[in-house]
Amino acid sequence: MIYVNGVEESFRDESITSLLKRRSVSERGVAVALNGEVVHRGQWPSTVVGDGSYVEIVTAAAGG
Q: What distance lies between CA 42 and its chain's CA centroid?
């Protein structure tokens, strides 16, 4: 299992880039943390989300 934004999901051995694509999340305006550590965008394709990982996907929002 992995946890994405606090929700348990089936485990898939995949990169952050793959996870975002599978979830239809645009990479623009997005930040990702893996197990409490922010992962820089350039590292997404090579950073594997392993079993038991906690992923936080945060999207920027504008407003006032």
A: 13
DSSP per-residue codes, the chain: -EEETTEEE----EEHHHHHHHTT--STTEEEEETTEEE-GGGGGG-EE-TT-EEEEEE-----
**Residue 38, domain extent:** 2-59
Report pTM.
0.88
Instruction: Tell me how long the chain is.
Output: 64
CA–CA separation, 64 vs 49, rounded Å?
A: 34
- Write out pLDDT tens, residues 42-57: 999 999 999 999 999 9
Q: Does 38 reside within a domain?
A: yes
